[in-house]
Amino acid sequence: MTTDLVPTPTAAPTRAFRLGIAGPVGTGKSSLIALLCRELSAELALGVVTNDIYTDEDARFLRSAGVLDPQRIRAVETGACPHTAIRDDVTANLLAVEDLEADFAPLDMVLVESGGDNLTATFSPALVDAQIFVLDVAGGGDVARKGGPGIGRADLLVVNKTDLGPYVGVDVEQMVADASAARDGRPVIGLSRTDRPSIEALTGWLRGVLAGFRSGGHVAVDPGPMAPHFHADEDHPGGGYVHAHDDAGSHTHG
Amino acid sequence: MATGAPAAAVVQLLLADSRLPVGAHTQSAGLEGALAAGMPVHDVPRYIDARLRTVTLVEASAAVLALTALAPADGTPAAGWPVDPDPARRLAAVDAAWHARSVSPALRENSRLLGRGLLRLAARLWPDASAVRAVRALGRPSRAVVLGAVGSAAGLAPADLATVLGYDDAQTVAAAALKLVPMDPVEATSWVLHAAPAIAGMAARAAAVRTPEDLPAAAAPLVEAWAEAHAEASARLFRS
Question: pTM above 0.95?
Fold first, then answer.
């Protein structure tokens, strides 16, 4: 019996590179995918899988955006389990990705959009090779500091809609600096569809990761179920404690 | 993978466990479409019972037939089977018989999608089992036929396999109800327990099926019509 339960990238991958896009509702995941399709579809063969929580709204938005052949955009139902569908039982998504790869072979990249949920949802490396976590300035300048596995350890953090900063009272530079500090130097891009250099930074990052995948040098990384975090506890010296979940089962989170 | 009774007992539990990674969380056993069409919540126990007498009986019977087509209890194919030494062709005959008795294209497509998820699992867990190799040769087999092949690879008895399908169907309805029309979860669990006699009766009927001609043809027009409407719905939590 094989123990190879998580696919490992081989030296010469024949399937498409799989990129996950996660992040809270309304931060611009679908718009980011539309942007990537618009920027890259001339040079890369693309497919998209969406994971809407209650509707096929995201798939319909992307089809109507006219940035990709509608047949290359598939919606997966998650049974109200958007976390499960991208993390502990990725079967439905894997089948949708494999269908796209078979129907439009050869594809260079399949983008998988998570159901917009909350700060804790991240993709399993069994489904995607790399993942982008998306925040937006309109969600508040403090969100990046709150951390979480996606913010802390996704392959790329995008702080979206930077052009809205002045209108929502958010210091964009500070928010990007907070995000960078939370990520120990992992990449952060402040993005606006009206800011051409930011778009080029995004596509440049993606081309670099894709080149790594194609050369066999890329290793999929799990951001983890939970980031190290702080528990308030008045009886504890210092008012609480910080810990990571390496010690499984030490306590529950209410 | 070891075969025999200990593995069979665990495999039976795994197949009944919604945590098995085969995409079960995408399913409501038609409940979402039924509620959307106006079926009242107090009818859910009768809905479970109706499924067990119709679509679930057909699916469980097809699974049993696939199981016995691969591993006849006495080592020889049952009387009534065409003499075909190729197990994949015997499974294809079961799949065709199931298809002919499954009216709704949406339900057939959903079954084949679930079959792929299960086949993906089976191909990894029992890569060398002749039953799994045979079912892989079918391309896109129904869930019932893949379950029969898994049952064969793990050494499940026909009645045990049919019981798994009955339990899974009732529990899928109950679990989906908790997402769609939240209530005290104990109540939903009681539906499954109260369905026990119907599950046992269905499993006994299914376990006795020995040839494709014996496969029950019990349709459920409302279940099938609701499934067709649900497949076209733009706002839904569950695939089926």
Answer: no
